[in-house]
From TrEMBL:
Protein name listed in UniProt: Adenine DNA glycosylase
Function noted in UniProt: Adenine glycosylase active on G-A mispairs. MutY also corrects error-prone DNA synthesis past GO lesions which are due to the oxidatively damaged form of guanine: 7,8-dihydro-8-oxoguanine (8-oxo-dGTP).
Cofactor(s) in the UniProt record: [4Fe-4S] cluster
GO biological process: base-excision repair; mismatch repair
Organism: Allotamlana fucoidanivorans
Residue ranges annotated for the HhH-GPD domain, each copy included: 35-186
Length: 347
């Protein structure tokens, strides 16, 4: 099809030089694709290089401690990706003797690997003609064909997958998949796309009707929940603090944080001090409380907005097991906590 040929020709001239494009090794392709989920190339590239340097083979990654993997991942967000990455590495090593699955269907059995990632690995490493569909692909195809079906609904997911599968170059699926992703990422961008110099200018329906900004169409998502987080940053006279490992399910599972007190609304100094006097870490002990940030730090996640305050709690000694403030940077923490640690002088 003319679309595929024109796209691949564009890619041959305009593609960026990236390390994972210099290999067919499924470990490296898989690693890059997991990192680039929900992450732009410029942010993900240093993490890819760090993982390759520290874990050059899937055996090295499988043998690592989860806390080490989470620490190396720190700052990328969506930590379930890191946990799934580690779990899948163990599965490949222990159940598959270090051999990655070689087909789209088999790749789907890896934890954290969905349609998009399986399609990318299968096409790039094994030349299987399975089309990738991600945000970039939705944008390119919806604009080119002026498709009004919402991309974040079940009907849209099926429709765009079928269309991409019809368009893919059967003889060169790896180049086609990488080309359409690259085109969406660098040319047919969400804002200010390069329509004036686009190779598809004469055939893009959205451009022809001056409606490029109207695509892709999405169903409005539910309003994010608002939560109020208050972290207790203990500092004892002998230079120790308390951090806790988050348990249960959640985006920060197995990461570390300061003791958390969640309130139903924003609280002032007097109200909060009265509330925490019965906290199990403070009950019946003298303490000095001060607020680090008078304005709440708003940390926006996909499904919730966290209004966060850090409260400094000075005590003579800790009434729980603690760590030296000098060791705090060894622990994997959420970005929100990491930024506080970087800014606060524990010395």
């Amino acid at each position: 099809m003319q679309f595929s040929k024109k796209l691949i020709n564009w890619y041959s001239v305009n593609k960026r030089v990236l390390p994972w494009r210099e290999t067919k090794n499924p470990y490296y392709i898989w690693l890059s694709e997991i990192i680039l989920q929900q992450t732009q190339v410029k942010q993900g590239l240093p993490y890819y290089e760090a993982f390759v340097a520290q874990y050059p083979t899937v055996f090295d990654l499988a043998n690592a401690e989860e806390r080490e993997v989470l620490k190396l991942w720190q700052g990328l967000g969506y930590y379930s990706r890191a946990r799934n990455l580690h779990a899948s590495a163990k599965h490949v090593v222990n159940a598959l003797k270090g051999e990655f699955p070689k087909t789209y269907k088999e790749l789907l059995n890896l934890k954290g690997v969905g349609d998009y990632t399986a399609s990318a690995i299968a096409s790039i490493c094994y030349n299987e003609p399975t089309a990738v569909v991600d945000g970039n692909v939705y944008r390119v195809l919806s604009r080119y064909f002026a498709i009004c079906t919402p991309t974040n609904g079940s009907k849209g997911v099926k429709e765009f997958k079928l269309l991409a599968q019809e368009l893919i170059d059967q003889d060169n699926p790896a180049e086609f998949n990488q080309a359409i992703m690259e085109f969406g990422a660098t040319w047919c961008t969400p804002k200010n796309p390069k329509c004036i110099s686009c190779v598809f200018q004469d055939s893009c329906l959205a451009f022809a009707h001056n409606k490029v900004e109207d695509y892709p169409v999405k169903i409005k998502s539910a309003k994010a929940k608002v939560k109020y987080f208050n972290f207790l940053v203990f500092i004892s006279d002998d230079g120790n603090t308390i951090i806790e490992r988050r348990k249960g399910k959640g985006i920060w599972q197995n990461l570390y944080q300061f003791p958390l007190v969640e309130t139903k609304k924003a609280v002032d100094y007097t109200t909060f001090r009265n509330q925490i006097e019965q906290h199990h870490l403070l009950k019946n002990i003298p303490f000095k409380l001060s607020l680090y940030n008078s304005e709440a730090i708003v940390h926006k996640l996909s499904h919730q907005h966290l209004y966060t305050k850090f409260w400094i709690v000075n005590v003579n000694r800790l009434h729980a097991e603690g760590i030296s403030v000098n060791d705090i940077e060894q622990f994997a923490v959420p970005v929100l906590i990491g930024k506080f640690i970087d800014a606060f002088n524990f010395k």
